[in-house]
Amino acid sequence: MIHNSRIPFLDLITPHRELEEELVSVFKRVVHTAVFVGGPMANEFEREFAQFCGADYCVGVGNGTDALRFALVAAGVQQGDAVVTVPNTFIATPEAISQVGARPDFVDVNERTYNMDPRSLQEYLELQCCPDGTTGRLVHRKTRSPVTGIIPVHLYGQMADMDPILELAARHNLLVIEDACQAHGAAYFSQREGRWKKAGAMSKAAAFSFYPGKNLGACGEAGAVTTNDKALAEKVRMLRDHGQRQKYNHEVEGYNGRLDALQAGILLAKLKHLPQWNQQRLENAHHYHELFRSHLDTVTLPFISPQAKSVCHLFVIRVKNRDHLRARLAQADIATQIHYPTPLHLRRPYAFLGYKEGDFPVAEKVAREILSLPMYPHLNTDQQKRVVEKVIESLQPLPVNSRMAQVPSPPALGGQVP
Ligand SMILES: Cc1ncc(COP(=O)(O)O)c(C=O)c1O
Q1: If you measure from the C-alpha of residue 398 to the centroid of ligand 1, how many angstroms do you get, rounded to a whole number?
Q2: CB-side exposure of 321: number of CA atoms within 13 Å?
């Protein structure tokens, strides 16, 4: 229950209150057994989550960034390689690529789904890259980096258009790792396979984050790699535990990236509720669509491809005067977020890649207009009505003489570098 009229961006209190007894009993079990890292609860969670995703294996790790890093290393990405992703993601995606010694290269996104645009990917692979004269490997024409992987991000809960991405990857012998950190339970109808496939089971490996605000969130940090490749799962198991299969028998240099037993137990308890929570999110998304129905000239609503089942991690609208709208909603005690304010090719950590404003016009345009409205399973109808009423009211044209004073012009994207 929300006890005041503030509408939070995310309500993490209600679901935890509802599950309090179950979560406390997990804590007691951990304290009584004193198995704090890995152990039976972590194993059980891995089995259950693999099954949930329709994948053969799941390896629990410390967080989603670990999951991406370990998946890249285990899949064979090497120092100096290039791995292609999108600029409108959380920084963890390119961070993981850089931190395994590879170079993140970006391609633009689709203007309706905000996910990787397969045509931009094709243009990158077939115009900006060519086979190396000596090795025959695909290299970037300018940087000469061998291109070895693609990370499509299933943004906001909707899976990327995986069929053409996988087809391009097969044509150019590239591995694909899904960033499924926002897509627990999302699905995609694969025309190639003639069936629905879930996030986490469509590529070489997938990375999940269980950060508390995710659709399936821990009470702290946690993540997982899912895969159908037994050898890759074994490698991730070693990497998360200092490169050892048996204590002190280190086979490679690894990381400290294990899953806590407490988080695993909590995730196991919450996993039972995830289908219901995802359904509630979907209903809330439908309700937002209904409430906005007669305002589609001013507000662009999320577009879900007929080939996708979104788990509505975020509900992201687009409007022309986003910063003004966000300020008005804040005045009305309605919390919003921007995912993400600056495409990463324009952020300082990636200045070394040499991109400039204009390189990814869709990601840049969208970044100026997007606004994430409150979205969570326990968001109620009255709250949604209030949000939508306030959005509509705030978007009414202002009287001509007050326009200049009240409406801030959108800042240049490059100007938002920290
Ligand atoms: C798209 C995406 N990738 C990667 C991550 C990283 O996950 P974590 O914060 O658990 O390391 C997140 C989480 O915020 C994410 O949203």
Answers
A1: 39
A2: 20
